[in-house]
């Protein structure tokens, strides 16, 4: 008799994914689902879905969900958490959502130390709208709205969100991970689990930035996209635990 | 127990909300509604509620959205420029079919305008403001007492229709003090909200609150569903007051503060033997078209009076449907009309009507 060592998490629905080949949302969804399962949070979790490619996260993760306006998920999560302090509330946001239109909401939710978890997926480009520049687009990286490549003089420098949030007093947990190799996936899983645990234990605002690939809009094969992520994104967005509260394993 | 007290409009409204079971308030300061926010900051914690001053109006309305999804009674308040910022969230709240109460104590505009009272957000309140095919129920109090009474109604109707309800007051109502009877606090409301996202619990199907409908057929079905809801509101929730209209030939149409001024003007011209009256919409959506149409069919002429350059007058004209003339008088920028000037306008209109009837019996002339 074989022993089952790997299976679909209970709270990840058995449905076909709508994401492009090589997109990392599928992996990150799975990591979130695993963390929710392992901590047995599904019955009392409310997710806040974003605008953009990952809005359909509510079709994949089997918990209650609210679909928020573009960038506003942290404010919506605040409303839910204040109304239901004993529930687990998380947002799942892309870089366009969180680092452009939603900068105010993320900064102030972090500054209040709101006891919610934010999963921030940074692929350095707008996905759903077709590959326009994001605040996280790297210098020199070309997009449909920066066809000659991002230029610091014209477009400003990319925003390092973890570093920015790390200047605030109240966040409890801030970590940047990646999912471009199996080893990094394992590390990312640990961070996501820790973030939920942090909320579960009432320690306050927890934030995980996940570097990820968008092969379609980067115009690369999935494998080349992973290489590009490692070569260009990692130096500017270093993988790092910025802040871990005491007692969170 | 109900009690009679002297209170400022903004504070009375806040107290009425607490007594109606509102336990969550998210807001951002703007004159002339700050007393409302400050009252909530002081008194919500006393009843175990939560007050949070957000980083912006956008933050506030989205916190309202989240709390509403969680099934609690929640409110926000602002004034014109802040309500403009909230419009995105209001559209989402309407599109997600969750109940919330939003208060606009109007100041002058457009732009930063000024802090004096107007009624220039009528279009914004009743014609959408945010994107998409949605309606708010819009309640227009004309006294501090009505600010109290309509607040209780707003929470009730928001829950009943799963739709945002807007209370549209103005700086006069917000700032003035009047004696008011406060209702006894109602115990924590236990309206069943099986749709609320409170966590799916054990063996329960997960709940989703969204306003996203990618397939056109599905999106149209949803819009039709909303339309049916708004039609039901039109049928059941239209509210208005008629003042001395039984035999009226000249009818003033005004809401809120303007209606109070018109009431005084109607009394003035009645003393001169002019048969004037007032129709005061209490709900601006649904708009009380029927009584206006009926009065027009009876031959009355109309004078719409607003603290704006003319917004509701368009709905009055739609209701009257060209049957009779509809004149307009308004002051803007925070200027409040003198009832004597309104009375003079009513007199002028009565004279024109008399002349028109002498010249061309049974036909209305231009006003």
TrEMBL record, chain A:
An annotated Gene Ontology molecular function: oxidoreductase activity, acting on the aldehyde or oxo group of donors, iron-sulfur protein as acceptor
Domain named Thiamine pyrophosphate enzyme TPP-binding: residues: 59-210
UniProt keyword annotation of Cell cycle present: no
GO BP annotation list: cellular respiration
Matches recorded under InterPro entries: 2-oxoacid:Fd_oxidoreductase, THDP-binding, TPP_enzyme_TPP-bd
Superkingdom classification of source: Bacteria
Protein name: Ketoisovalerate oxidoreductase
Alphabetically ordered keywords of this record: Oxidoreductase
Organism: Heliobacterium modesticaldum (strain ATCC 51547 / Ice1)
């Amino acid at each position: 008799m074989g022993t089952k060592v790997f299976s679909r998490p209970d709270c990840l629905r058995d449905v076909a994914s709508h994401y492009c080949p090589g997109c990392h949302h599928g992996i990150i969804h799975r990591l979130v689902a695993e963390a929710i399962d392992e901590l047995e949070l599904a019955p009392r979790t409310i997710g806040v879905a974003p605008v953009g490619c990952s809005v359909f996260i509510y079709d994949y993760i089997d918990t209650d969900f609210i679909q928020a306006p573009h960038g506003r998920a942290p404010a919506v999560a605040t409303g839910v958490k204040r109304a239901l302090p004993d529930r687990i509330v998380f947002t799942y946001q892309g870089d366009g959502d969180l680092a452009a239109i939603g900068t105010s909401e993320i900064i102030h939710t972090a500054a209040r130390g709101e006891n919610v978890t934010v999963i921030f997926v940074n692929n350095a480009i707008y996905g759903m709208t077709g590959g326009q520049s994001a605040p996280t687009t790297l210098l020199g990286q070309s997009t449909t709205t920066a066809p000659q490549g991002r230029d610091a003089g014209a477009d400003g420098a990319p925003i390092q969100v973890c570093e920015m949030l790390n200047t605030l007093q109240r966040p409890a947990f801030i970590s940047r991970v990646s999912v471009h190799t199996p080893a990094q996936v394992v590390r990312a899983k640990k961070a996501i689990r820790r973030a939920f645990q942090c909320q579960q234990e009432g320690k306050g605002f927890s934030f995980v930035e996940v570097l990820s690939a968008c092969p379609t809009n980067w115009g690369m094969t999935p494998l080349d996209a992973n290489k590009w992520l490692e070569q260009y994104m990692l130096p500017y967005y270093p993988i790092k635990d910025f802040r871990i509260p005491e007692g969170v394993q | 127990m109900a009690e009679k007290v002297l209170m400022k409009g903004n504070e009375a409204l806040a107290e009425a909300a607490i007594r109606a079971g509102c336990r969550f308030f998210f807001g951002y300061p703007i004159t002339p509604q700050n007393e409302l926010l400050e009252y909530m900051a002081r008194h919500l914690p006393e009843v175990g509620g939560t007050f949070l001053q957000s980083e912006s109006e956008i933050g506030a309305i989205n916190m309202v959205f989240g709390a509403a999804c969680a099934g609690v009674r929640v409110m926000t308040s602002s004034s014109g420029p802040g309500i403009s910022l909230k419009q995105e969230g209001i559209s989402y709240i309407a599109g997600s079919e969750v109940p919330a109460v939003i208060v606009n104590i109007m100041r002058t505009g457009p732009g930063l305008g000024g802090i004096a009272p107007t009624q220039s957000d009528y279009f914004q309140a009743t014609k959408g403001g945010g994107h998409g095919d949605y309606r708010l129920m819009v309640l227009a109090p004309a006294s501090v007492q009505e600010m109290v009474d309509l607040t209780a109604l707003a929470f009730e109707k928001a829950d009943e229709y799963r739709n945002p309800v807007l209370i549209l007051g103005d700086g006069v109502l917000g700032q003035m003090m009047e004696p008011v009877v406060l209702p006894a606090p109602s115990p924590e409301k236990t309206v069943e909200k099986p749709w609320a996202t409170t966590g799916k619990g054990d063996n329960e199907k997960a709940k989703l609150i969204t306003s996203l409908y990618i397939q056109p057929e599905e999106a149209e079905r949803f819009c039709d569903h909303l339309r049916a809801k708004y039609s039901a509101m039109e049928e059941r929730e239209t509210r208005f007051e008629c003042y001395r209209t039984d035999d009226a030939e000249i009818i003033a149409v005004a809401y809120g503060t303007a209606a109070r001024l018109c009431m005084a003007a109607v009394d003035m011209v009645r003393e001169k033997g002019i048969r004037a009256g007032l129709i005061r919409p209490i709900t601006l959506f649904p708009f009380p078209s029927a009584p206006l149409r009926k009065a027009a069919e009876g031959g009355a002429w109309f004078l719409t009076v607003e603290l704006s350059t003319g917004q509701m007058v368009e709905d009055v004209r739609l209701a009257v449907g060209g049957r009779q003339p509809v004149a307009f008088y308004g002051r803007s920028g925070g200027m409040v009309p003198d009832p004597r000037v309104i009375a003079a306008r009513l007199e002028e209109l009565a004279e024109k009507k008399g002349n028109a009837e002498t010249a061309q019996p049974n036909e209305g002339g231009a006003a």
